[in-house]
UniProtKB/TrEMBL annotation:
GO terms for cellular component: plasma membrane. Transmembrane segments: none annotated. It comes from Smutsornis africanus (Double-banded courser). SUPFAM superfamilies: Fibronectin type III. This is INLR1 protein. One of its GO terms (molecular function) is cytokine receptor activity. The lineage of its organism: Eukaryota, Metazoa, Chordata, Craniata, Vertebrata. The gene is Ifnlr1. Residues 5-102 form the Fibronectin type-III domain. PANTHER family: INTERFERON LAMBDA RECEPTOR 1, INTERFERON/INTERLEUKIN RECEPTOR. It holds the Pfam family Interfer-bind. CDD domains: FN3.
C-alpha cells in the first residue's frame, strides 16, 4: 500500500512582534529525518499556491513569511507538508490572516540621552526591512518614580526623537513606550519596561 507520513499538527499563521510566521508541530510518529515545505496563497490569486524558497525541506517547525508577502493589505493563507525520503504527508492549511489588520506589535526599545537640561528619547523597533515603510508610531510616557501622574507624548513617528525639556525636573524619572499602528483603529503593543534616569541631581 501507499505509506503516508503523519501530517503536521496545529498549523497556525501567527502574527507576532511585527512578523507573520507559520508554525506547526510534528505529526505523531514522524521519523527523525522529517523535513517540511511551506507554500502560501493570497486572496488576490486564490488558485495559485506560491513556493517559499527559504522554507523548502527545512527541519525547523516555523517559517517567517513577512517579507514574502506580496501585499500587506490582502489576506493570505499558508500550508505545510512533511517530507521524508520518498514519502510525504498531505498538505495542512492554516487560517487566513492579513498583515495590516492582524499584525501584533512588540514594545519598542528606548534609547535615552541626557544633554544639559534636555532629554532626547528615541525608540527602535524589531522590524523586518520589508515593513519599515509602514507608518509605525510610538507613544511615550514620562513620570517621576513612585508617582502615578504620567505625561504622555503620543503618536511620534517611529524614527523621530522626542526632546523633553528637563529643566524643571528633579529626581528619578522613568520612561516607557509602546508601539502603535493605525489599521481600522489604533493598535498598540504593551508598554516597554521602564527606563529610569536621575535628573538635575545635585550631590
Amino acid at each position: 500500500g501507499h505509506v503516508q507520513l503523519p501530517s503536521p499538527q496545529n498549523v497556525t499563521l501567527l502574527s507576532k512582534d511585527f512578523d507573520m510566521i507559520l508554525t506547526w508541530t510534528p505529526g505523531e510518529g514522524s521519523p527523525p529525518d522529517v523535513t517540511y515545505t511551506v507554500r502560501y496563497k493570497s486572496q488576490e490569486r486564490m488558485d495559485k499556491w506560491i513556493k517559499v524558497p527559504h522554507c523548502k525541506n527545512i527541519h525547523r517547525t516555523s517559517c517567517n513569511l513577512t517579507c514574502v508577502l506580496p501585499n500587506f493589505f490582502v489576506k493570505v493563507q499558508a500550508r505545510v507538508k512533511a517530507v521524508s525520503g520518498a514519502f510525504q504527508s498531505p498538505w495542512v492549511e492554516s487560517q487566513f490572516k492579513e498583515y495590516h489588520l492582524d499584525v501584533e506589535l512588540a514594545p519598542p526599545v528606548l534609547n535615552v540621552n541626557v544633554k544639559e537640561n534636555l532629554l532626547h528619547v528615541n525608540a527602535s523597533f524589531p522590524l523586518a526591512t520589508c515593513v519599515e515603510s509602514l507608518s509605525w508610531m510610538y507613544d511615550l510616557d514620562l513620570w517621576e518614580a513612585g508617582s502615578e501622574d504620567k505625561k504622555q507624548y503620543e503618536r511620534n513617528f517611529r524614527k523621530n526623537t522626542v526632546t523633553i525639556d528637563a529643566t524643571a525636573l528633579r529626581g528619578n524619572y522613568c520612561l516607557s513606550a509602546r508601539s502603535s499602528f493605525q489599521s481600522i483603529d489604533f493598535k498598540y503593543s504593551r508598554f516597554s519596561q521602564p527606563l529610569c534616569v536621575l535628573l538635575n541631581h545635585k550631590g
